[in-house]
Amino acid sequence: MKDKIKKYLKENKLDKKTIAIIKYVASGLLFFSLIELFIKIPALKTADYYIAFNMCSILFTFFYSFVFLFYYYIVPKKMTKVTGIVLYTIFILLAIINYFLIQIKQVPLSISLLSLTEEGFNYLNMVLKKIKPFPIIMLILCIFSAIINYKCLRICKDMKVKKTDKKKNWSYAYIILMILGFYFASIESLYYVIDEETKIQPIEYYERHSIYSNGVVALGYYEYAARDIYFSIHEDNIDELIEDEMRIRKKYYREPEENKYTGIFKDKNLIMILMESMDEIVMTEETSPTILRLRREGLNFTNRYSYISRGGHTLASEFTSLTGLMYRSDYHFIMQNGTYSDALPKVFKDNGYQTNSMHENVGTYYNRKTLHPRYSFDHSYFLMDMTEDVIPYTDAQMVDNNEFYDKIIPKNGQKFMSYITTISAHGPYTLQNEECIGTNSEIECFKKLANRTDVFINHLLKRLEEDQLLDDTVIVLITDHQAYTYNFEEEYLQTLKTVDKKHLLKSLPFIIYSKDIEHQDIDLFVNDIDIVPTLLNMFGIEYNPNTYIGSDLFRKDRMNLLLFDNFTWYDGTYSVYSNASTNPKYNEELEYMNDIFRRNEALITYTYYDLK
What DSSP string describes 78-91? Predict the structure, then answer.
C-alpha cells in the first residue's frame, strides 16, 4: 500500500511542499472539528433540533476552518508562533467555556451574556464538579491537534520552493474561490436539511438568532458565533419595526372585556413574590407546607411554564412579570433606557397605590437599582445596601426584621403594591455552598434552602394577620425559573417530578391567594406575558388590552398557547414545535408566535410603550 501511494504521488507530481500543505490543512480541520465536537455534544442534550451532523453545519465548519487556516498560513513566518498561540488558545478557551456554560445554564456563550459575567463567578464550584473524563479527553485531543497543526505549518514555511509572484497570486486566488464556494454551498444547504421529527430547517435558526443549543446543533458553533456577533451589532430598520408593530396590533386588536374575575380584588393590596428556584421537585409537605396550603386554598395555575425554557435568569421573569413583555439577554442594555409607562407598578401607582420592591442582594446586581425606578416603584430596597447585618440565604429576615418589614408594608393606611424577590433557594446545592453543610445530597440541600422561602411566606402571612391586613391583601407567588444549578440528569428529574414528557419539566408554580377566594385548579396555559393584564383585570383597574403582547388569562378570545423564547411553542396536543405534518393549526400558531416576537422586539427596542 505504501509503495502504491508513493507511485501515485510521483505520477501526479505532488511535490513535498504540496504534501506538507495537505498535512497542514488536514491537521487544521482535525483541530477545528474537535472544537466543534467539544461544544456540540453537550448542546445535543438540551437541543430540540435533532440532526446533529447535517450538511450545512459540516460545510460551515469547513468554511470557517479554511478561513482561519488561510489566514494563519499567510501570516509572516516570524509571527507564526505568537499568532498560533493566540488562535489556538482562543478556540480552546471558547470550547471549555461553552462546554461548562451549556452544562450549567443550558445555553452556549453569547455576547449578550457577557453582561452577566458577575453572576457567572458564583458558579465556579459547580464547574469544578462537572469536570468529567469527556472534557479532559477533548481538551487533550484539542491541544495535541493544535501542536500537530503548528508543526505542519512550520514545515510548510521552512520549505523554500521557487515560485513566481504571478503563480503565487493565482494560488491564493484559487484558495479564496474555494473558501467562497464552501460559504455559498453552506448557505444553499440551509434550505435542504429538515428535521423529520420537528419539521424545522436550519434556515429557521439562521434567520432568527436564538442563544440556545438549537442554533449550535443546526448551524454548527462557528456559524452560530458569527450570527451572534452579527445580531449584537445589527440594528433593525426603525420604520420597518414600527410599521410591523402597528400592523400586528391592528391584526390582534381587542376591545376591553369583562369576565367573572373582573374586579374581584378591587381596592385590595397586592404582594407579588418572585420565588427564586422554587421548582416543583421541592414542593412537598415537609419542605413547602405553607406554599402548598396557599395552592390548595387559592387559584392554582397547573400549566404555568417559564418562557425561558433552558434554565434562565431571575431578571427575565422579574422583567416580564412587571412589564408584560418578554425579556431576552440581548435586550439587557436597551431596556435600561426604556419608558415603562404601562408597567404594573406604574399602573398601580396611578391608581393610588404605594409601590415598593425588595431583594436581599445589592442594587447593582442585574442593575436593579436603575431598572426598578423605571418601573415606577416608589421605593426599592436592597438589603445588602441598607446594612452589613444581612443574613445570607434567609428570606425570613425581610419580615422578622421590623426595619425591613416596615419598608414593604406601609403603616400609613395607604393601599400598597409590594414586589419581593426571594433568594434562599438559590443554588449551588453542593457542599461548596456553606448553607449545604450537614446535608448528604444536592436534593437534600435544595429542600433545606427551599424550606427557608416557605418559612418566609409563613411569617409574612402571620404578620399580615397580626396587622389585620391579610383580609385585604392578595398574595401572588411565581417561581422565576427552573433550579438549573442542580446537577441532575433529566431522567432523574422526571422521576422527581413524576412526569413522562421532558417539556413538563419546565412547569413551575403560579398561585394567586386571597382569603375570600374559592379554590380552583386552573389548567390554562400561563405565559409570563399574561400575568400583568390578568392582575389588572382582577383588581378592576382599567387598561388598554392592546398595550400588552400577552392577554388576560380569562379572555374568551385568548389563544391558549405556550410560547418559549427560543421560537418554539406548545399547544397541549403536539410536540413543542407543533409538528407541521400532523397539527392542523400549525400555520396559525406559527404566525401568532412570529407576530408576538416581532411586536415584542419593536416595543423593547424602541423606547417600549412610546410606540403605542
Answer: GGHHHHHHHHHHHH
Q: What 3 state SS string does 444-459 have?
A: HHHHHHHHHHHHHHHH
**Nearest CA among 421, 441, 413, 419 for reference residue 429:** 441
Contact, 37 vs 138, CB < 8 A? yes
Which DSSP symbol is given to 209? Answer: -
What's the confidence (pLDDT) of residue 341? 85
| CB contact at 8 A, 426 and 487 | no
pLDDT, tens only, 251-286: 888 899 999 999 999 999 999 999 998 988 888 999
User: Mean pLDDT across the chain, nearest whole number?
Assistant: 84
Residue 563 CB neighbour total at 10 angstroms: 27
Cα-atom radius of gyration of the chain, to the nearest Å? 28
Q: Where are the domains of the chain?
A: 2-233, 240-611
Are 524 and 302 in contact, with CB atoms under 8 Å apart? Answer: no
Structural contact between residues 17 and 153, judged by C-beta atoms closer than 8 angstroms? no
Strands ordered across the beta sheet of 269-275:
379-382, 354-359, 416-421, 269-275, 473-479, 510-513, 299-304, 520-526
- Specify the residue for cell string 488562535: 87
Query: For 590, phi and psi rounded to 5 degrees?
Result: -60, -45
Nearest-5° angle of CA 537, CA 543, CA 547?
115
- The reported pLDDT for the residue numbered 575 is 62
Q: What is the pLDDT, as a whole number, of residue 199?
A: 64
Q: Which residues pair with 479 in a beta bridge?
A: 275
Low-confidence ranges of the chain (pLDDT < 70): 1-15, 112-130, 160-171, 196-199, 210-211, 235-238, 308-312, 328-337, 489-490, 498-505, 574-581, 606-612
Query: Is the N-terminal amide bond of 428 cis, ω within 30° of 0?
Result: yes
Pairing of strands 416-421, 354-359: parallel
- The pairing of strands 473-479 and 510-513 is antiparallel
According to DSSP, the residues that pair with 474 across neighbouring strands are 270
Backbone angles phi, psi at 517, to 5 degrees: -100, 145
Tally of CB atoms within 10 A around 362: 15
CA distances from 272 to 113, 171, 521, 541, 594 (A): 27, 67, 19, 17, 30
Backbone angles phi, psi at 13, to 5 degrees: 55, 45
Distance, CA of 217 to CA of 51 (rounded, Å): 7
Helix (H) or strand (E) holding 415: none
DSSP 263: T
Q: Where are the alpha helices (DSSP H) in 418-548?
A: 442-466, 490-497, 531-538
Give the 3-state DSSP-derived string for 105-125, with helices as H, strands as E and coil as C.
HCCCCCHHHHHHHHHHHHHHH
Q: Contact 203/190 with Cβ under 8 angstroms?
A: yes
Q: In this structure, is the dihedral angle defined by the CA atoms of residues 501, 503, 506 and 512, taken in order, positive or negative?
A: negative
Residue pair 82/90 in contact (Cβ under 8 Å)? The answer is no
Q: Which residues, in sequence order, are CB contacts of 82 under 8 Å at separation 6+?
A: none
Helix (H, G, I), strand (E, B) or coil at 525: strand
Asked whether the beta carbons of 459 and 398 are under 8 A apart, the reply is: no
Q: CATH number of the domain at 240-611, please?
A: 3.40.720.10
Q: What pLDDT is recorded for position 537?
A: 97
